[in-house]
């Protein structure tokens, strides 16, 4: 293929991805009420130990705030729903340049990318009530402060946390890819294990949007497990 043909192929793949994102955004927009209820649940769980149990409501301070929130949630939902299509189109674009023995990894890597992202987002969702409880408690006695949360800031925080966990859970896919490409070896990963542990803990502390210890540990521990699993997978692939 010529350079122009490659660019044309890339444009076609991008158009398919954009169409998938648009469809996902429309679906999310239609089920917005149920999605907000699900996203609000961690906040309600965080208030169960306080005097404000059952009062987990958000407050709109601007006329257009509710509509902008719905658009933001729809955009995030569209990206999430379209993730399998996006990853598949990326692999379809790259696959013609791969050798026959390399193409067989396309489907497993595509499935692993989507599954790990979904698991990471779910772990973030399960962790978020503890993060909210920590943030509420650290602000001071409940009698001194009353949280009046904006739905935009809350939803943005929980969605950013879910995206951060989802992207970070792609760590083993990256490591195994580098091992298959010959950039890394299981021996190198084992040799730099101590420095890797320090780096992963620091990364978890920096990338966690809520900056609470629960979310940091929930992100750092899977990274450590993924690192060890990548060494084992690399050895198996080497054989």
Based on CA atoms alone, the radius of gyration comes out at 21 Å
Number of helical regions:
11
- Globally, the shape reads flat
Mean pLDDT: 83
Proportion of helical residues = over 70%
How does this model look, in words?
The structure is a single chain. This protein is mainly α and 239 residues long. It has a domain at 3-169. 77% of the residues lie in helices and 0% in strands. It has 11 helices and no strands. Helix 6 crosses helix 7 (151-168) and helix 8 runs parallel beside helix 11 (213-238). The longest helix has 33 residues, at 106-138.
Explain the layout of strands and helices.
Layout: H1 3-30, H2 32-46, H3 65-81, H4 83-94, H5 100-103, H6 106-138, H7 151-168, H8 171-180, H9 186-191, H10 193-207, H11 213-238
Helix pairs in contact: 1-3, 1-4, 2-6, 3-7, 4-6, 6-7, 6-11, 8-11, 10-11
Task: Supply the key terms.
0% strand, 239 residues
Overview in brief:
This protein has 239 residues and is mostly helical. It has 11 helices and no strands.
